[in-house]
Amino acid sequence: MFIQLVINGINYKVDIDPNMRLIDLLRDKLGLVGTKEGCGEGECGACTVIMDGESVNSCMVMAFQADGSNITTIEGLEENGELHPIQKAYMEEGSVQCGFCIPGMIMSTKALLDKHPNPNREEIREGISGNLCRCTGYNKAINAAERAIEILKEGAKNEA
Amino acid sequence: MKKRGVGIGLSFYGTGYGNGFPDVSNAEVQLMEDGKVAIFVGATEVGQGAKTALIQIGAETLQLDYKNIIFINEDTDMMPDSGTAAATRQTYNTGNAIKIACENFNEEIKKAAQKALGLNSTAGLIVKDGVVYLAMFPDKRISYKELSKIYKDDIIKAKGTFTAQTVKMDDETGQGAPYWPYTFNACMVLVEVDTNTGRVELLKSIFAQDVGRAVNPRLVEGQMDGGFAMGLGYTLFEDLNLDKGKMRNNRFSKYLIPTSMDMIDIENIIIEDPESTAPYGAKGIGEPTTIPVGPAILNAIYDATGVRVTHLPVTPENLMKAIRESEKSEAI
Predict the structure, then answer these.
(1) pTM above 0.90, yes or no
(2) Quick check: A48 contacting B, CB < 8 Å?
(3) How much is the pLDDT for B74?
(4) Who has the most CB within 10 Å: A84, A109, B127, B142?
(5) What one-character DSSP code corresponds to residue A7?
(6) Mean pLDDT by 10 residues, chain A (160 residues)
């Protein structure tokens, strides 16, 4: 069956199996391997992408359910060859250790900041609570979200 | 009823393989065609920051900007063996091997510069920022790039090996000095226990970790946060639930590890007391950061409730059982 969808601003018309998951479409069919598969059953959040403004576990969404949707993956964050402020902040704050959970965690942070541009630390904790990390203890990821908020505010000021 | 309690956990931990087991790290250093310096070493980066910390140790010894160092550590065809990324050993053991290899390299490149500059001796030659020069007459100088051209058929390189000192324990008495060095830490937590539900909530933690010297303080903090989270999960949540050798909790829906909402901000204190046998005094801290967390939480639960829990994890169910049992024994 064919579905049509927008991924990272690009229109796709793809032939999929009816039993294909969204993560398999992204990784195997389109080569967007920045999205990671951790548990494959919706517990760890490594495969988080943004679908029509909501963060979803792409292992729990069937590809056909994404027909007509607008999806952002970790590959879609950079603009004109520049990393997204959240990505920059993760690097600045040293938030990454093994890195496997990080694409998902950054997408959850993006989904949170898109809706609530100014969350406090507890709200950030809640926002990334669906993303399991074994290495970092999360605190530096929370520092990074706070730093990203600053960078985004500076950017908005400069534009105005 | 909600009750608060404070607990402290202390630990010391011997790093490296220990107990007389040969613990050897090797490194090789070589001048490249463009005047950059390559370090070949078998230290695996698994997110702990080996690559960063070991490049820093190399840069310090070579007196070279890290951007001019090519660090090759994950191609076993190209590099010597530096042992496993385990036993909290890479910073100390492989860091030492890299420091020795870089010191040897500095001597080799001074010899090469002596020849190229037509000097009588290497005495007074300084290596700094990719240049060898004579301290008493700095105009006598030659860059690594020039040296790499002169010596392109006789590449300037050096090796370094570090073998940690460990002594096998006496089989009969168990006495001896199985490890060197040791690293020390102290962790304090404040918890709130709900005696109606058995839920334990962390409110505050102060965590002090001896690192010898913090090669990269941010990496140290990352290890401390991560080690704390693992200790927390081990103490309150994580249970494989083995049944006749089968893991019953083999999914994240049952084997619970801490989420960002279970973690708290920790006041990390890095203690720098340089270790004399370590590269620039630096010791590893990977494993030890997990150790004092459990005892600190259990002591805090005791302080809050008067109940000593001796079985992990302290799930709400297990804690309620322990509280009821202690009430019963008090009633008798």
Answers:
(1) yes
(2) no
(3) 85
(4) A109
(5) E
(6) 97 97 98 98 98 98 98 96 97 97 98 98 98 98 98 89
pLDDT at B81: 96
- B266 interaction partners in chain A (CB closer than 8 Å): 137, 139
The tokens describing B276, both together, are: 């004399």
Q: What is the DSSP string of B34-95?
A: TS-EEEEE-PPPSSSSHHHHHHHHHHHHHT--GGGEEEE-S-TTTS-----S-TT-IIIIIH
Query: Is B305 contained in some domain?
Result: yes
User: What pLDDT is recorded for position B249?
Assistant: 97
Angle at B281 between CA B277 and CA B282, to 5 degrees: 110
CA distance B249 to B199: 20
Domain assignment present for residue B19? The answer is no
CA distance A105 to chain B (A): 11
Q: How do residues B108-144 score in pLDDT, each as one tens digit?
A: 999 999 999 999 999 999 999 999 999 999 999 999 9
Catalytic residue among B45, B192, B221, B287: B287
Residues of chain B found within 8 Å of residue A137, distances taken between Cβ atoms: 222, 224-229, 258, 263, 266
Place of tokens 């967007």: A32
**CA–CA min distance A22, chain B (Å):** 21
Cβ distance of A138 and B263 shorter than 8 Å = yes
Distance (Å) from the C-alpha of residue A87 to the closest C-alpha of chain B?
Answer: 17
Kindly report the CATH number that applies to the domain delimited by A85-159.
Answer: 1.10.150.120
B189 φ/ψ angles, rounded to the nearest 5 degrees: -130, 150
Residue B270 and residue B197 in one domain: yes
What's the number of domains chain B is made of? 2
Contact list, A139 vs chain B (CB under 8 Å): 225, 263, 265-266
Q: What angle do CA B267, B273, B274 make, to 5 degrees?
A: 130
Which residue of chain B is at minimal alpha-carbon distance from A43? B252
With 0-12 / 13-18 / 19 or more C-beta atoms within 10 angstroms meaning exposed / middle / buried, residue A136 is: buried
Tokens of A157: 């000021």
Indicate yes or no: CB of B225 within 8 angstroms of CB of A137. yes
Closest approach of A39 to chain B, Cα-based (Å)? 8
CATH class as words, domain A2-76: alpha beta
Its domain, for residue B289, covers 2-14+182-331
In chain A, the residue whose alpha carbon lies closest to the alpha carbon of B253 is A43
Return the domain boundaries, chain A.
2-76, 85-159
B175 part of a folded domain: no
| Residue B287 annotated among the catalytic residues of the structure | yes
Find, in chain B, the residue whose alpha carbon is nearest to that of A126.
B261
Annotate A12-48 with b (16+ C-beta within 10 A) or e (fewer). eebebeeebbbbbbbbeebebebbbbbbeebbbbbbb
Residue B125 sits in a domain whose CATH number is: 3.30.365.10
From CA B295, how far away is CA B11, in angstroms rounded?
Answer: 9
Comparing CB atoms, the residue among A41, A99, A139 nearest residue B47 is A99
